[in-house]
Specification:
12 helices; six-stranded parallel sheet; alpha/beta; three-stranded antiparallel sheet
């Protein structure tokens, strides 16, 4: 029984131990759920009940390293501990401090964005090392969020002078002309996800200040025509809904000292049809018209351009969401 195989880990600083365990022991419960071990806290002490010696050692190592990270002044969230647990499963000798340092982006003194899995860490390396990166894959893999984080970090480090975020305003069910308000109010619903990412990292006031200073611009893709942007970090989101002409227009906006990230999901193309394909013409018309699909073919092998493909297995979910999805899958199979 697990109760017969218990080890205790005691911490010197009760306040740091409380941060490590999480509010109402939320972090401890997260790791207990992931590992299948029984974890109990008593003040600044953690008791690990686990019959498997290697698993018990892994959990002890995780919390010991987590406490060490807190001692260096780093904040620690439950998802960080969960990622550390997965890293130690892959490599029991993993050093979490080094992993978090290499996979993190500091977007403000109080906020650090951390890659949550290996594909995200590879993606962040490409963002650091290439002038143009194409990232494709399903929603929830961090394509746009990590690109925004890298853009803010480079802006803070003065490696770029401006961030420009854009996406095509593809109509889905209702036309822009029938939406109330002026042009800015009409396109804001399409740009909301970009504002959400910026607001999460900078806070509403910080975002407003940088917008007023001209350091951050969020605009529909149509507003990019005719511009050349130097020393800027450009992000094109939902790129699967660009036409070939729009994609070429965006890619040629890149000026000296600038970087560009193009994100999209080629399985979610919402381009309106311009005509009807004949049965012998093959692929769906949205796919044949998509500027992203076309660019992925044309730009392969071009020096300075990198490509990264996320998969459904790379989607970062709250553990409860993962269990809900699994439950639905089991129900559908039955």
């Amino acid at each position: 029984m697990k109760q017969n195989f218990a080890e205790t880990l005691s911490f010197d600083d009760a306040a740091l131990a409380s941060q490590l365990f999480g509010p109402l022991n939320a972090h401890v419960e997260l790791i207990a759920d992931a590992s299948g071990s029984e974890l109990q806290t008593r003040g600044a002490t953690l008791v690990v009940h686990e019959a498997d010696a290697s698993r018990r050692s892994l959990v002890m190592n995780l919390f010991a390293q987590g406490y060490g990270l807190l001692q260096t002044g780093r904040s620690l969230r439950g998802e960080d501990l969960l990622q550390g647990y997965e890293a130690l499963l892959r490599d029991p000798q993993a050093q979490l401090e080094r992993m978090f340092r290499d996979a993190s982006v500091i977007v403000s003194p109080r906020k650090t964005i951390l890659a949550r899995n290996t594909p995200q860490r590879v993606y962040m390396e490409l963002l650091r090392s290439h002038e143009m990166v194409f990232a494709t894959g399903p929603a929830g893999t961090g394509k746009t969020y990590l690109a925004v984080a890298m853009a803010i970090a480079m802006l803070a480090a003065k490696r770029v002078k401006k961030i420009v975020l854009t996406r095509p305003a593809v109509e889905a069910g209702e036309r822009l002309g029938f939406l109330p308000g002026d042009m800015e109010e009409k396109v804001n619903p399409y740009l909301r996800p970009l504002y959400d990412a910026l607001g999460d990292m900078l806070g509403p006031q910080g975002l407003l200040q940088k917008q007023e200073a001209g350091m951050i611009e969020v605009a529909p893709l149509a507003f990019m025509r005719g511009r050349t942007l130097n020393d800027a970090f450009l992000i094109l989101d939902e790129a699967q809904n660009t036409t070939r002409e729009q994609m070429k227009m965006f890619l040629t906006r890149l000026g000296f000292g600038s970087r560009a990230v193009i994100t999209g999901d080629v399985t979610q193309i919402d381009l309106p049809p311009a005509g009807r394909l004949q049965p012998w013409e093959g692929a769906p018309e949205g796919e044949t018209r998509s500027g992203l699909v076309h660019a992925l073919e044309v730009l392969r092998g071009v020096r300075g351009v990198a490509f990264h493909q996320f998969h459904s297995s790379d989607v970062v979910r709250h553990p409860l969401v993962g269990r809900i999805v699994d439950a639905y899958d089991r129900h559908e199979k039955n």
